[in-house]
Amino acid sequence: MTKRIAFLASDVKVAQTARESLVKRYGNAAPRDADVVVALGGDGFMLHTLHNMQHLDTPVYGMNRGTIGFLMNEFHEIDLLERLAAAEEEVINPLAMQAMDQSGKLREALAINEVSLLRAGPQAARLKISVDGRVRMAELVCDGALLSTPAGSTAYNYSAHGPILPIGADVLALTAIAAFRPRRWRGALLPKIAKVRFDVLDADKRPVMADADSVSFPDIDWVEIRSEPAIQHRILFDPGHGLEERLISEQFT
């Protein structure tokens, strides 16, 4: 049975050109009617597509028309139906973030990769970290901190010297960004079911912004983060090139 495919592309020319060629060859369905969504772009566009498709139970197959393409497969035009038939599926859960800003407004967002807190002024941030209601670090002086999923562990988390996590690991990575006190503290591994809270200390003098997959909120007082098992993102990969293999390979490059 021929799959109904919805082709989506980022705004860059190479992605739009690829979409035009693929639509001519395979046709194009609306995302709500499709058996599979094919996303053409880079990792940023893949995250954008997954967020937009989360109300549908439709798997997403990415083909790289961007830069790194960690979440993407290689781009080939002629054998797409065969590749979709053979593709392996990974299921990931996002992080749910609630953040209170200094005006008293509650902000909410979902993050497939990570939720990060970043200093928004010239001085280092001061953060208090609690896990499941228990204070684990009374004060972390740093440029920021982040909580990452396994799928996002090779992104900002890895750049901040956090660990790479196997996709099937039921853990989250809590990683400091340029920690000053405790000096060189790199973070911790936490159970996937943990609820993590960051309280911003001295927020008026040392403002902090919160970011969930590039959705940013300024002047934050506190942030609470947990995994959201009710939302499942289905991602398709070519055999032997899934997230598990990519996470392992990344550690030997």
Automatic annotation (TrEMBL):
- What processes does the entry annotate via GO biological process terms? NAD+ metabolic process; NADP+ biosynthetic process
Q: Which residues form the active site?
A: 43 (proton acceptor)
Cofactor section: a divalent metal cation
What residue intervals traverse the membrane? none
The top EC class is: transferase
What does the record give as the reaction this protein catalyses? NAD(+) + ATP = ADP + NADP(+) + H(+)
- Pfam families per UniProt: NAD_kinase, NAD_kinase_C
Where does this protein hold NAD(+)? 43-44, 48, 113-114, 143, 151, 154-159, 178
Coiled-coil spans in chain: none
**Gene Ontology MF annotations:** ATP binding; metal ion binding; NAD binding; NAD+ kinase activity
Q: Among its keywords, does the record have ATP-binding?
A: yes
**Keywords from the named record:** ATP-binding, Cytoplasm, Kinase, NAD, NADP, Nucleotide-binding, Transferase
Q: What is its main location?
A: cytoplasm
Q: Which GO terms describe its cellular component?
A: cytoplasm
Protein EC: 2.7.1.23
Output the InterPro entries linked to this UniProt entry. Answer: ATP-NAD_kinase_N, ATP-NAD_kinase_PpnK-typ_C, NAD/diacylglycerol_kinase_sf, NADK
Location(s) in or outside the cell: Cytoplasm
Protein's UniProt keywords contain Transferase: yes
> What NCBIfam families does the annotation carry?
PRK04761.1
Give the matching PANTHER family.
NAD KINASE (PTHR20275)
Q: What does this protein do?
A: Involved in the regulation of the intracellular balance of NAD and NADP, and is a key enzyme in the biosynthesis of NADP. Catalyzes specifically the phosphorylation on 2'-hydroxyl of the adenosine moiety of NAD to yield NADP.
**What HAMAP family does the record point to?**
NAD_kinase (MF_00361)
Q: Which family does it belong to?
A: Belongs to the NAD kinase family.
Protein name in the entry = NAD kinase
| Species | Ruegeria denitrificans
Give the classification, highest ranks.
Bacteria, Pseudomonadati, Pseudomonadota, Alphaproteobacteria, Rhodobacterales
Write the gene name.
ppnK
